[in-house]
Amino acid sequence: MMWIHKITEKTTHRQIKNEKLEESETTIDRGARVEVFENGVIGYAGTQDISSEGLIKAEQKARRLSVASQKNPLFRFSENIRPFAKGQYKSPIQKSLDSVSLEALMSLLIDCTKAMKTSDEIILRQAGVTIVETEIHSTGPQGHETLQNFSVISLNFMATAQRGSEVQYRTLHGRSAAYQIGAELFSRHRLIPNCEMLGRQALELLNAENCPTDQVDLILAPDQMYIQIHESIGHPLELDRIIGDERNFAGWSFVQPKDFGNLQYGSKLMNVTFDPSRFGELASYAFDDSGMKAEKQFLIENGKLVRGLGGLESQERSGLPGVANFRSSSWNRAPIDRMANINLEVGNTETEEMIQSMKKGLIVHSNRSWSIDDYRDKFQFGCEYGQWVEDGKIKKIVKNPNYRGRTLEFWRNLAYVGKDSETFGTLNCGKGEPSQIIRVGHSSPYCLFKNIEIFGGG
Amino acid sequence: MNWKSSLQQSFEKNTDMILQKLDGETEVSFYLEAEESEFVRFSKGQVRQATAVDQAEVNLTIKTKTKTSKISFPMTGVMAEDRQRFLLYFGKIQKELEALPENPFPIQFASSGQSFTNKEGQTPNAEFIIDKVKADASKDDFVGYLASGPIVRAVKNSKGTYHWYSTDLYFVDYSLFEGQQAVTANVAGSRWVEADWQNSLSESRAFLDQMRKPKKVLPRGEYKAYLAPSAVSELVSTASWGGFSQHAFQVGQCGLKQVFDGTKKLSSMITLKEDFTLGLCQPFSSNGELAENTVTLIHQGVGEKLLTCSKSAVEYKVTSTGANDWEHAQTLDLAKGQLSKEKIFKEIGTGLYLSNLHYVNWSDRQSARMTGMTRFACFWVENGDIVGPLQDMRFDISLYDLWGSQLLALTDFQETSVNNLTYIKRGLGGTRLPGALVDGFRLTL
Ligand SMILES: [Zn+2]
Where is the domain boundary, A207, A240, A273? Predict the structure, then answer.
């Protein structure tokens, strides 16, 4: 049996620096991945020659690799790992990308860097836009056919302030403002005020005190929650990690097969979903690369771990429940288990109530540093902008806010979950051998965690 | 005709075809990145997935007196098909130029002559490594992968510059596991050397034997530590993102800013060079500029030169070192010191032996602080003897201290490791580094 995935992707990156052009670059990528499934083993071949001659050559290579792998396979799969599929997906777009001319886009970005200039101390102002248009056309046996079109925009806005040797910056949401969206994102009256805010806050940081070392209540804004979810929920729940495929590179997981249905991952307020149907979120889609239909599933319910992030191959290998997340980064890589949209479902606390509940604490915004161990346990994160709270009120801004902790203890300290969710994402989640980068989305409200170790820079 | 030859022929003919179309105003540069690869992925000594990939990307930069733009597109090595693509994308980018604002810092494409390097080897294919792992490592819990086959980098521009660099390379990057204890290694080269493979496996097994002892759980604190070259490599590789960059320095984001502005001096043992004579990667940039053979970044603890690309050179009115556009180091050499292999454990006395580090990231660039984890074959040592493997710990430490007053010794040997990154495409380059003995290595979690 054979499947062919033809992938066409156009990426344009335009960036303005200090009101002048910094970068204009277009990348056209087009290729096909041919997959040959024989005797329970799939061989893969990627080519940029998608003529019928090119595809025949690729098929021969894929067959050769299937045959070679059959000599010592890790697992022989049943045909169930490749369900029949027929259907389409299109990113939800209100305004077509063609509706904004290059001149208009450039002039908007120029005005964005102008808006960041709240003072002469804002030495560097950058406004960049990355637009990705992807088409994935998959065909297979008995008329199997899916066509998925994605329209993605990622914003990279940054204001850097300097006074003497002190340098501080603010970016728009720690560079996680990335969505499936159309040209409606380029709205002047939404972007310009954001840019003014970045300029103002970068200046505030120049005047701010360093974040203290302490153990306090910590509120994470949604643009920090996204990476906390990504690193300490998304990756450890990937079934291919749990069954050992990534042990040489990305790592293993503290989660074990027996934990599904049993492990109390976090407090009762914690509800986490795999949701490929969320409007505008970066990793929404209708089918994964195996043809499995993508549907919303609870991974963690009332704090208890119920389901992992593994496609049909990992499900067959492990006997564990999974989701439709068998995805490759492009035509030149074989699909593996990838998180997609992993969201923390909303709770019922207003952010203001959370702040009022704090005797002493910290609110952090926009990620700037991240690191976690290969079992996804001991983490450390740094943020751009901190707000210090005493007696239920925000008292001052602090710079270089950092915190560290251990995954289960941290999530069990989740004490409040906000009412309103915000959506972020990244184009650059890395994993796999050979390595792949892929798009992931994370939605979350503000959340409060008790007793967290915090510290500053320097 | 093989893949490499058809690719070369098509690249030469089709770039010439575009060059002949240029009017006097327009200049172009073509940068080719290509590979013909086989990847085989293993877990538990068995094949997880095998993938073959042919890929070639042309990065076309076009400029006039005032404007610049770039487009990248795939080529196939099939002459007629590629001709259409060159024409199509050249037309598109030419048209787009009109709509773009002016480039405030236009660079000159280099006129640096011509060169041709083809490092022939014989790299293992999928069948070969599958048989090898089955024969030699089926009793081990062997996990990792082979990446193998030719890699090409070439540049050609309208100033008559043409450099071609092709090399046959492979690596097997693997770990051996026993329960949760693991050791990692990398075997690499341009042809298979059976002895290298066998030695690597037996060294790994010997390390794994040492890890059967009970795990040592340490409290947070500061420890004397030996960092093996592979651990030093994790720090140096992270530092090379922004730590030696002219652009990062100019906008206050250089992780080693104070070394390069002269306000801090590192240990005089630290002499760090970007050294293209190691022969690990192509010595030219994407616009045809030849890199300096060696660029001394830090000389005996004092910041000397920053990696500077032609764009930064124009923007900040400094001299280019021929660095790539990102100004990250590709082929670093840290000078060796005095500590001999035999004395390492004795000199640790009581402390840490760290083979590898994991997920290293800047935690505060302004103070050169980095955080990361211990991983694989890390040990607790008492009175010069291994007591047992270490429970993974997080560190958070300033390079100003670690490579300054806390640096006790560098080893009198270096290890060369090749770039094993395979995001989007297989990387070139690598590092040649000694091990380092340090005091006050700060464990925080
Ligand atoms: Zn990730």
Answer: A207
The per-residue pLDDT for A383 is: 98
Residue A64 lies in domain:
2-207
pLDDT at site A67? 98
Q: Checking DSSP bridges between strand B221-227 and strand B272-275, what pairing results, if any?
A: unpaired
Task: Pick B50's closest partner by Cβ from A69, A332, A402.
Answer: A69
Query: Which of A11, A15, A17, A24 to substitute to test the interface with B, most B CBs within 10 Å?
Result: A24
> At residue B144, what is the residue type?
G
First-last CA distance in chain A: 59
Q: Which residue has the tokens 């073509």?
A: B30
Residues in chain B: 445
What are the boundaries of each domain within chain B?
3-126+147-169, 213-443
Residue A434: is the preceding peptide bond cis (ω within 30°)? yes
Domain of A188, CATH number, reads 3.30.2290.10
- Omega before A212 cis (within 30°)? no
Q: Is the ipTM of this complex over 0.95?
A: yes
Q: Which residues pair with A214 in a beta bridge?
A: A454
Chain B residues 413-442 with a CB less than 8 Å from chain A: 421-424, 426
Chain A closest-CA separation from residue B4 CA (Å): 15
Q: What backbone torsions phi and psi does residue A302 show, to the nearest 5 degrees?
A: 50, 40
Using the beta-carbon criterion (under 8 Å), do B49 and A69 form an inter-chain contact?
yes
For chain A, residues with pLDDT lower than 50 are: none
Beta strands in B101-255 (DSSP E): 114-119, 141-157, 162-178, 181-189, 221-227
Residues of chain B with C-beta less than 8 angstroms from the C-beta of A245: 41, 43, 48, 143
- The string of pLDDT tens digits covering residues B285-340 is 999 999 999 999 999 999 999 999 999 999 999 999 999 999 999 999 999 999 99
A251, two tokens: 């790592």
Whole-prediction pTM: 0.97
B314–A contact, CB cutoff 8 A: no
Q: Residues B42, B176: contact at Cβ < 8 Å?
A: no
**DSSP for residue B191:** B
Task: Look at residue B19 in the predicted model and tell me its pLDDT.
Answer: 98
Q: Of chain B residues 183-242, which have a CB less than 8 A from chain A?
A: 184
Cβ distance of B144 and A248 shorter than 8 Å: yes
Cβ contact A42:B101 at 8 Å? no
